[in-house]
Amino acid sequence: MDLPSNPPVSPAVRITVLLRLVSEGFQDAFGARPEWLEAPPVDLAELREVVGVERIGQLRAATGLREGSQGYAAGGPAGVVRLAAAAHEGVLGLLGVAALPPDVIIEQTDEGPRYHVPDDWFLTTPAGGPARG
Predict the structure, then answer these.
(1) d(Cα 96, Cα 83) in Å, to the nearest integer?
(2) What is the C-alpha R_g of the chain?
(3) Which backbone phi and psi does 38 adopt, to 5 degrees?
(4) 8 vs 94 pLDDT, higher one
């Protein structure tokens, strides 16, 4: 995915939002928190550079964060959820650097806006079953 060379949003913020998105997608699909999260090696290295080795260690311990060869993913005994290409494009709208996709629903709550993203942002594979989504 091509991003501007001088993006208005920190890459660390984009990476964090993608990790949160895939984690919440897993929770929605399987009703439990994932045991691990994966990020592409380049993004994980960039995050490590920004937040430091100690913080990455804390994230690894708390979320099972690890390097993944197939993009952003969350997994556990119930299965795996990966982010589809639409999620990578749509997250730029969530961050305010591109138009918000028309199929994203915004709900105003007391805590602020909640964003409901389309199911096709996620590729879900139940344990021992075929991929769906």
Answers:
(1) 19
(2) 15
(3) -125, 145
(4) 94
- Cα–Cα nearest to 42, from 3, 80, 81, 8: 3
Q: How many residues does the chain have?
A: 133
Cα-to-chain-centroid distance, residue 10: 15
pLDDT confidence of residue 45: 93
Helices (H), the chain: 11-30, 41-51, 53-63, 85-94
For residue 63, pLDDT beyond 80: yes
pLDDT band of 34, cuts 50, 70, 90:
very high
Give the C-alpha separation, 14 to 132, whole Å. Answer: 25
| Residue extents of the structural domains in the chain | 11-126
Half-sphere exposure of 30 (CA within 13 A, CB side): 24
Pairing state of beta strands 65-67 and 36-39?
Answer: parallel
Please name which of 42, 41, 40, 122 lies closest in space to residue 84, comparing C-alpha atoms.
Answer: 122
pLDDT per position as a tens digit, 69-99? 889 999 999 999 999 999 999 999 999 888 9
